[in-house]
Fold this protein.
Amino acid sequence: MTAGITLSGVGKVYPDGTRAVTALDLQIEPGELMVLVGPSGCGKTTTLRMTAGLEEATEGEIWIGDRLVNALDPRERDVAMVFQNYALYPHMTVFDNIAFPLRAHGLRRDEVRARVQRTATLLGLDGLLERKPRALSGGQRQRVAMGRAIVREPQVFLLDEPLSNLDAKLRTEMRAEIAALQRELRVTTMYVTHDQVEAMTMGTRIAVMRDGMLLQHGAPQVLYDEPDNLLVAAFIGAPVMNLLRGRIERDRNGLTCVLGSGRLPIAPNGSAAELASYAGTDVAVGIRAEHLGEPSAGPSGRPTLQGRVRLVERLGAEQLVQLAVDAAAVTADGGPTESGRTAAITARFDAHAQVTPGELCEVAVATERLHFFDLATRHAIRGRD
Protein backbone atom coordinates (compact mmCIF):
# COMPACT_ATOMS: atom_id res chain seq x y z
CA MET A 1 0.00 0.00 0.00
CA THR A 2 1.31 3.44 -0.90
CA ALA A 3 2.05 6.00 1.81
CA GLY A 4 2.50 9.74 1.91
CA ILE A 5 5.74 11.54 2.80
CA THR A 6 5.96 14.32 5.36
CA LEU A 7 9.08 16.45 5.75
CA SER A 8 8.84 18.65 8.83
CA GLY A 9 11.56 21.23 9.49
CA VAL A 10 14.11 19.05 7.71
CA GLY A 11 17.63 20.42 7.44
CA LYS A 12 21.07 19.13 6.48
CA VAL A 13 24.40 20.55 7.61
CA TYR A 14 27.60 18.74 6.65
CA PRO A 15 30.52 18.34 9.07
CA ASP A 16 32.44 21.17 7.41
CA GLY A 17 29.56 23.54 8.17
CA THR A 18 28.05 23.59 4.67
CA ARG A 19 24.27 23.88 4.86
CA ALA A 20 22.52 21.97 2.07
CA VAL A 21 18.87 22.15 3.19
CA THR A 22 17.11 24.59 5.51
CA ALA A 23 13.86 24.07 7.47
CA LEU A 24 12.07 22.18 4.69
CA ASP A 25 8.36 21.56 5.23
CA LEU A 26 6.67 19.51 2.53
CA GLN A 27 3.71 17.13 2.45
CA ILE A 28 3.48 14.60 -0.40
CA GLU A 29 0.09 12.92 -0.51
CA PRO A 30 -0.34 9.15 -1.00
CA GLY A 31 -0.19 8.34 -4.72
CA GLU A 32 1.09 11.79 -5.69
CA LEU A 33 3.99 12.53 -8.05
CA MET A 34 5.89 15.42 -6.49
CA VAL A 35 8.72 16.89 -8.54
CA LEU A 36 11.56 18.66 -6.74
CA VAL A 37 13.12 21.09 -9.19
CA GLY A 38 15.81 23.73 -9.03
CA PRO A 39 19.32 24.59 -10.22
CA SER A 40 22.34 22.45 -9.39
CA GLY A 41 23.26 22.66 -5.72
CA CYS A 42 19.79 23.74 -4.56
CA GLY A 43 19.38 20.80 -2.16
CA LYS A 44 16.85 18.71 -4.07
CA THR A 45 18.98 15.55 -4.34
CA THR A 46 20.07 15.88 -0.72
CA THR A 47 16.38 16.01 0.23
CA LEU A 48 15.68 12.84 -1.74
CA ARG A 49 18.69 11.07 -0.21
CA MET A 50 17.58 12.03 3.30
CA THR A 51 14.15 10.59 2.53
CA ALA A 52 15.79 7.37 1.34
CA GLY A 53 18.06 7.17 4.36
CA LEU A 54 21.25 7.54 2.33
CA GLU A 55 21.93 10.86 4.08
CA GLU A 56 21.19 11.60 7.73
CA ALA A 57 18.90 14.56 8.39
CA THR A 58 20.61 16.99 10.77
CA GLU A 59 17.31 18.58 11.77
CA GLY A 60 13.60 17.86 11.56
CA GLU A 61 11.48 14.78 11.04
CA ILE A 62 10.85 12.55 8.02
CA TRP A 63 7.66 10.50 8.02
CA ILE A 64 6.64 7.82 5.53
CA GLY A 65 3.02 7.07 6.18
CA ASP A 66 2.59 6.94 9.96
CA ARG A 67 6.23 5.94 10.62
CA LEU A 68 8.96 8.32 11.73
CA VAL A 69 11.91 7.02 9.70
CA ASN A 70 14.82 9.23 10.76
CA ALA A 71 16.47 6.40 12.68
CA LEU A 72 15.63 3.64 10.16
CA ASP A 73 18.11 2.17 7.67
CA PRO A 74 17.28 2.49 3.96
CA ARG A 75 16.20 -1.18 3.81
CA GLU A 76 13.65 -0.56 6.56
CA ARG A 77 11.97 2.45 4.92
CA ASP A 78 10.18 0.50 2.15
CA VAL A 79 11.34 2.84 -0.59
CA ALA A 80 12.80 2.07 -4.03
CA MET A 81 15.25 4.37 -5.82
CA VAL A 82 16.04 4.89 -9.49
CA PHE A 83 19.37 6.62 -10.04
CA GLN A 84 20.73 8.83 -12.81
CA ASN A 85 23.20 6.15 -13.92
CA TYR A 86 20.67 3.25 -13.67
CA ALA A 87 23.11 1.20 -11.47
CA LEU A 88 22.49 -2.04 -13.37
CA TYR A 89 24.69 -5.08 -12.81
CA PRO A 90 26.52 -5.54 -16.15
CA HIS A 91 27.16 -9.27 -15.70
CA MET A 92 23.48 -10.06 -15.01
CA THR A 93 20.63 -10.49 -17.46
CA VAL A 94 17.63 -8.19 -17.49
CA PHE A 95 15.67 -10.86 -15.62
CA ASP A 96 18.32 -11.16 -12.92
CA ASN A 97 18.69 -7.38 -12.57
CA ILE A 98 14.95 -6.98 -11.98
CA ALA A 99 14.83 -10.04 -9.73
CA PHE A 100 17.80 -9.00 -7.58
CA PRO A 101 15.90 -7.15 -4.80
CA LEU A 102 13.35 -9.98 -4.55
CA ARG A 103 16.04 -12.63 -4.15
CA ALA A 104 17.80 -10.43 -1.60
CA HIS A 105 14.58 -10.53 0.44
CA GLY A 106 14.39 -14.34 0.19
CA LEU A 107 11.23 -14.68 -1.90
CA ARG A 108 10.40 -18.11 -3.35
CA ARG A 109 11.59 -18.83 -6.87
CA ASP A 110 8.07 -19.09 -8.32
CA GLU A 111 7.05 -15.78 -6.71
CA VAL A 112 10.19 -14.10 -8.08
CA ARG A 113 9.49 -15.37 -11.59
CA ALA A 114 5.85 -14.32 -11.50
CA ARG A 115 6.61 -10.79 -10.26
CA VAL A 116 9.48 -10.25 -12.70
CA GLN A 117 7.33 -11.44 -15.61
CA ARG A 118 4.46 -9.18 -14.55
CA THR A 119 6.80 -6.20 -14.28
CA ALA A 120 8.50 -6.96 -17.61
CA THR A 121 5.11 -7.09 -19.34
CA LEU A 122 4.12 -3.77 -17.78
CA LEU A 123 7.33 -2.16 -19.10
CA GLY A 124 7.47 -3.86 -22.50
CA LEU A 125 10.60 -5.84 -21.61
CA ASP A 126 9.21 -9.33 -22.27
CA GLY A 127 11.54 -10.06 -25.18
CA LEU A 128 14.65 -8.69 -23.48
CA LEU A 129 14.81 -10.71 -20.27
CA GLU A 130 17.81 -12.79 -21.35
CA ARG A 131 19.87 -9.84 -22.59
CA LYS A 132 22.55 -8.08 -20.61
CA PRO A 133 22.65 -4.28 -20.12
CA ARG A 134 25.36 -3.72 -22.75
CA ALA A 135 22.97 -5.07 -25.40
CA LEU A 136 20.24 -2.54 -24.50
CA SER A 137 19.52 1.00 -25.63
CA GLY A 138 19.47 3.86 -23.14
CA GLY A 139 15.69 3.79 -22.95
CA GLN A 140 15.64 0.03 -22.38
CA ARG A 141 18.19 0.35 -19.57
CA GLN A 142 15.99 3.02 -18.00
CA ARG A 143 13.02 0.63 -18.13
CA VAL A 144 15.07 -2.09 -16.45
CA ALA A 145 16.05 0.31 -13.67
CA MET A 146 12.38 1.22 -13.27
CA GLY A 147 11.48 -2.47 -13.28
CA ARG A 148 13.87 -3.21 -10.44
CA ALA A 149 12.13 -0.51 -8.39
CA ILE A 150 8.58 -1.50 -9.36
CA VAL A 151 9.01 -5.24 -8.72
CA ARG A 152 9.56 -4.59 -5.00
CA GLU A 153 6.09 -3.04 -4.71
CA PRO A 154 7.37 -0.34 -2.31
CA GLN A 155 5.38 2.34 -0.55
CA VAL A 156 7.43 5.11 -2.16
CA PHE A 157 9.42 5.63 -5.37
CA LEU A 158 12.41 8.01 -5.28
CA LEU A 159 13.77 9.03 -8.70
CA ASP A 160 16.98 11.05 -8.96
CA GLU A 161 17.44 12.71 -12.39
CA PRO A 162 16.49 9.40 -14.09
CA LEU A 163 16.37 10.82 -17.63
CA SER A 164 19.43 13.05 -17.68
CA ASN A 165 21.56 10.57 -19.65
CA LEU A 166 19.07 10.22 -22.52
CA ASP A 167 18.87 12.25 -25.72
CA ALA A 168 16.15 14.88 -26.10
CA LYS A 169 13.70 12.72 -28.09
CA LEU A 170 14.00 9.77 -25.74
CA ARG A 171 13.68 12.02 -22.70
CA THR A 172 10.33 13.26 -24.01
CA GLU A 173 9.11 9.71 -24.62
CA MET A 174 10.33 8.38 -21.27
CA ARG A 175 8.90 11.19 -19.16
CA ALA A 176 5.47 10.47 -20.66
CA GLU A 177 5.93 6.76 -19.95
CA ILE A 178 7.05 7.31 -16.37
CA ALA A 179 4.16 9.69 -15.67
CA ALA A 180 1.64 7.23 -17.13
CA LEU A 181 3.21 4.35 -15.21
CA GLN A 182 3.07 6.29 -11.94
CA ARG A 183 -0.61 7.09 -12.49
CA GLU A 184 -1.31 3.41 -13.13
CA LEU A 185 0.62 2.15 -10.10
CA ARG A 186 -0.50 5.02 -7.84
CA VAL A 187 2.71 4.85 -5.83
CA THR A 188 3.81 8.00 -4.00
CA THR A 189 6.76 9.38 -5.97
CA MET A 190 9.41 11.98 -5.25
CA TYR A 191 11.08 12.92 -8.54
CA VAL A 192 14.19 15.11 -8.70
CA THR A 193 15.19 17.06 -11.80
CA HIS A 194 16.87 20.32 -12.81
CA ASP A 195 14.72 20.46 -15.97
CA GLN A 196 11.69 22.68 -15.40
CA VAL A 197 9.98 21.42 -18.59
CA GLU A 198 10.24 17.90 -17.19
CA ALA A 199 8.78 19.14 -13.93
CA MET A 200 5.90 20.98 -15.59
CA THR A 201 4.88 18.02 -17.75
CA MET A 202 5.17 15.28 -15.11
CA GLY A 203 4.35 16.55 -11.66
CA THR A 204 1.03 16.44 -9.85
CA ARG A 205 2.70 19.24 -7.92
CA ILE A 206 6.10 20.92 -8.16
CA ALA A 207 8.36 22.07 -5.34
CA VAL A 208 10.89 24.71 -6.45
CA MET A 209 14.10 24.86 -4.40
CA ARG A 210 17.07 27.19 -4.34
CA ASP A 211 20.01 27.48 -1.94
CA GLY A 212 18.58 24.71 0.22
CA MET A 213 15.21 26.41 0.73
CA LEU A 214 11.75 25.68 -0.60
CA LEU A 215 10.57 28.71 -2.57
CA GLN A 216 7.09 27.59 -3.60
CA HIS A 217 5.12 24.42 -4.21
CA GLY A 218 1.86 23.76 -5.97
CA ALA A 219 0.26 22.57 -9.19
CA PRO A 220 2.40 23.29 -12.27
CA GLN A 221 -0.04 25.79 -13.76
CA VAL A 222 -0.34 27.67 -10.47
CA LEU A 223 3.43 28.14 -10.29
CA TYR A 224 3.44 29.29 -13.91
CA ASP A 225 0.53 31.72 -13.55
CA GLU A 226 1.19 32.93 -10.01
CA PRO A 227 4.88 32.76 -9.05
CA ASP A 228 5.35 33.87 -5.46
CA ASN A 229 8.71 35.51 -6.06
CA LEU A 230 11.25 36.54 -8.66
CA LEU A 231 13.26 33.34 -8.33
CA VAL A 232 10.30 31.12 -9.21
CA ALA A 233 9.19 33.50 -11.97
CA ALA A 234 12.64 33.35 -13.56
CA PHE A 235 12.91 29.58 -13.29
CA ILE A 236 9.50 28.28 -14.35
CA GLY A 237 8.60 28.67 -18.01
CA ALA A 238 10.24 28.24 -21.40
CA PRO A 239 11.25 30.71 -22.63
CA VAL A 240 11.90 32.30 -19.26
CA MET A 241 9.81 35.22 -18.10
CA ASN A 242 11.04 38.64 -19.27
CA LEU A 243 12.03 40.67 -16.20
CA LEU A 244 12.37 44.45 -16.45
CA ARG A 245 12.77 47.34 -14.03
CA GLY A 246 9.77 49.65 -14.12
CA ARG A 247 8.49 52.67 -12.20
CA ILE A 248 4.93 52.88 -10.93
CA GLU A 249 3.39 56.32 -11.52
CA ARG A 250 -0.03 57.86 -11.01
CA ASP A 251 -1.75 59.80 -13.75
CA ARG A 252 -5.28 60.96 -14.40
CA ASN A 253 -6.27 57.53 -15.69
CA GLY A 254 -4.93 55.61 -12.72
CA LEU A 255 -1.63 53.77 -12.43
CA THR A 256 0.99 53.48 -15.16
CA CYS A 257 4.12 51.38 -15.37
CA VAL A 258 7.01 53.21 -17.01
CA LEU A 259 9.52 50.95 -18.78
CA GLY A 260 12.27 53.11 -20.23
CA SER A 261 10.57 55.17 -22.91
CA GLY A 262 7.45 52.98 -22.83
CA ARG A 263 4.35 53.51 -20.70
CA LEU A 264 1.95 50.70 -19.90
CA PRO A 265 -1.39 51.40 -18.17
CA ILE A 266 -2.01 49.02 -15.29
CA ALA A 267 -5.28 47.15 -15.58
CA PRO A 268 -7.69 48.10 -12.73
CA ASN A 269 -7.83 44.58 -11.34
CA GLY A 270 -5.59 41.97 -9.75
CA SER A 271 -2.60 43.72 -8.18
CA ALA A 272 -3.66 47.34 -8.90
CA ALA A 273 -4.72 48.06 -5.31
CA GLU A 274 -1.47 46.70 -3.91
CA LEU A 275 0.58 48.57 -6.51
CA ALA A 276 -0.92 51.92 -5.44
CA SER A 277 1.42 51.94 -2.44
CA TYR A 278 4.40 51.64 -4.82
CA ALA A 279 3.58 54.82 -6.74
CA GLY A 280 6.80 56.76 -7.33
CA THR A 281 9.04 53.74 -6.78
CA ASP A 282 10.64 51.07 -8.92
CA VAL A 283 9.46 47.46 -9.11
CA ALA A 284 10.36 44.39 -11.13
CA VAL A 285 7.93 43.75 -13.99
CA GLY A 286 7.48 40.26 -15.41
CA ILE A 287 6.06 39.62 -18.89
CA ARG A 288 5.80 36.16 -20.42
CA ALA A 289 6.56 35.75 -24.12
CA GLU A 290 2.99 34.73 -24.96
CA HIS A 291 1.74 38.05 -23.58
CA LEU A 292 3.90 39.95 -26.08
CA GLY A 293 2.88 39.66 -29.71
CA GLU A 294 2.11 41.34 -33.00
CA PRO A 295 -0.17 44.37 -32.58
CA SER A 296 -2.43 43.05 -35.35
CA ALA A 297 -2.86 39.63 -33.74
CA GLY A 298 -4.59 40.62 -30.47
CA PRO A 299 -7.33 43.00 -29.36
CA SER A 300 -7.03 46.45 -30.92
CA GLY A 301 -5.82 49.33 -28.79
CA ARG A 302 -3.38 47.34 -26.70
CA PRO A 303 -0.35 49.33 -25.52
CA THR A 304 2.92 48.53 -27.21
CA LEU A 305 6.65 48.48 -26.61
CA GLN A 306 9.16 49.17 -29.36
CA GLY A 307 12.41 47.31 -29.80
CA ARG A 308 15.00 46.35 -32.37
CA VAL A 309 14.87 42.71 -33.44
CA ARG A 310 18.01 40.82 -32.41
CA LEU A 311 17.11 37.23 -33.16
CA VAL A 312 14.26 35.27 -34.73
CA GLU A 313 13.83 31.57 -33.86
CA ARG A 314 11.45 29.85 -36.27
CA LEU A 315 9.93 26.82 -34.56
CA GLY A 316 7.41 25.79 -37.20
CA ALA A 317 4.20 26.50 -35.29
CA GLU A 318 5.44 29.87 -34.06
CA GLN A 319 8.39 32.25 -33.92
CA LEU A 320 10.25 33.43 -30.84
CA VAL A 321 11.37 37.00 -31.50
CA GLN A 322 14.05 38.54 -29.31
CA LEU A 323 14.11 42.33 -29.18
CA ALA A 324 16.34 44.92 -27.53
CA VAL A 325 14.13 47.46 -25.77
CA ASP A 326 14.81 50.75 -24.02
CA ALA A 327 14.45 49.46 -20.46
CA ALA A 328 16.59 48.04 -17.68
CA ALA A 329 16.62 44.28 -17.18
CA VAL A 330 16.39 42.72 -13.73
CA THR A 331 17.98 39.48 -12.56
CA ALA A 332 16.20 36.75 -10.60
CA ASP A 333 17.87 38.16 -7.49
CA GLY A 334 16.24 41.53 -8.09
CA GLY A 335 19.43 43.32 -9.09
CA PRO A 336 20.32 45.09 -12.36
CA THR A 337 22.00 43.25 -15.21
CA GLU A 338 25.28 44.28 -16.78
CA SER A 339 23.53 45.48 -19.94
CA GLY A 340 22.33 48.65 -18.20
CA ARG A 341 19.55 50.49 -20.03
CA THR A 342 18.99 47.95 -22.80
CA ALA A 343 17.09 44.74 -22.07
CA ALA A 344 16.49 41.73 -24.30
CA ILE A 345 12.90 40.49 -24.25
CA THR A 346 11.32 37.54 -26.03
CA ALA A 347 7.90 37.60 -27.71
CA ARG A 348 5.84 34.87 -29.39
CA PHE A 349 4.78 35.68 -32.95
CA ASP A 350 2.71 33.77 -35.45
CA ALA A 351 4.76 31.44 -37.65
CA HIS A 352 4.04 33.51 -40.76
CA ALA A 353 4.73 36.97 -39.33
CA GLN A 354 7.32 38.88 -41.33
CA VAL A 355 10.09 39.75 -38.87
CA THR A 356 13.69 40.51 -39.81
CA PRO A 357 16.69 40.87 -37.48
CA GLY A 358 17.82 44.52 -37.26
CA GLU A 359 14.44 46.12 -37.89
CA LEU A 360 12.42 48.16 -35.42
CA CYS A 361 9.36 46.28 -34.26
CA GLU A 362 6.30 47.03 -32.16
CA VAL A 363 5.01 44.39 -29.74
CA ALA A 364 1.58 44.53 -28.13
CA VAL A 365 1.46 43.92 -24.38
CA ALA A 366 -1.35 42.09 -22.60
CA THR A 367 -1.15 44.43 -19.61
CA GLU A 368 -3.71 42.43 -17.62
CA ARG A 369 -1.15 39.60 -17.52
CA LEU A 370 1.77 41.58 -16.14
CA HIS A 371 3.50 40.36 -12.98
CA PHE A 372 4.96 42.76 -10.41
CA PHE A 373 7.59 42.05 -7.75
CA ASP A 374 9.03 44.07 -4.88
CA LEU A 375 12.71 44.70 -5.66
CA ALA A 376 13.75 44.57 -2.00
CA THR A 377 11.91 41.42 -0.89
CA ARG A 378 11.65 39.81 -4.37
CA HIS A 379 8.09 38.78 -3.45
CA ALA A 380 5.15 39.08 -5.83
CA ILE A 381 2.93 42.14 -5.52
CA ARG A 382 -0.64 41.06 -6.02
CA GLY A 383 -4.09 41.42 -4.53
CA ARG A 384 -4.82 39.53 -1.35
CA ASP A 385 -7.43 36.79 -1.44
Remarks:
- Residues 119 and 151 are 6 Å apart (CA to CA).
